[in-house]
Specification:
alpha+beta, DNA polymerase, domain 1, 2 domains, five-stranded mixed β-sheet, 10 helices, 43% helix, elongated
Length: 230
Amino acid sequence: MSDGGIKQWPEDERPREKLLKRGTAALSDAELLALLLRTGDAAAGKSAIDLGRELLSRYDGNLRSLAQAELNELQQIKGLGLAKAASLKAAFTLAARFQARPLVTLDRFTSPAQIFDYFHHELRDARTELFLVLLLDGKNRITRRVTISHGSLNQSIVHPREVFAPAVRESAAAVIFVHNHPSGDPAPSREDREITRRLKEAGDLLGIRVLDHVIIGDGGYYSFVESGSL
């Protein structure tokens, strides 16, 4: 069915009119995608809803998998050019930013669960590992977050010199390390444990307390403090 066909549907079944009359909750995922795509693939006789359904089918109905798709990957789908792919990426990025609460200076994390609640929306879908350092003052209030590395963790990238340089420069009293596992499993690797041990020793020498190292997974986390490994 072509996009022209949508205009011939009963008004209550057209996505835009359906949204206006019944609200977004009444729309299926394919219909919501159709509103973002606006048009389908006329040459192939696909409506915007047909294209939305095809997108969902390509990613097994998993919106998170669709949200993770790269622009060039989306553009490989017939009927989905740069403009449509960019609209989808923009919408999913806005949704992710809406979910993530801004980190406010002088916030205080009092448990690993709080750290997980704050960071999991941002980190759970990242395709590479990110290593962050939270700088804290003498009352364990956050003064700044610093991204140390992107990519697989190793001891040459996550080196004590690079990790503690901003903490020393800003006279931080303590730090918390946060990183993610793209696999979704937060269990620490042998290298995670070795890096944490070295960083803890460096912090002790510098007089900067290492309060925790929290690994973010998909739906769960690992805390070195809670596990008694720090």
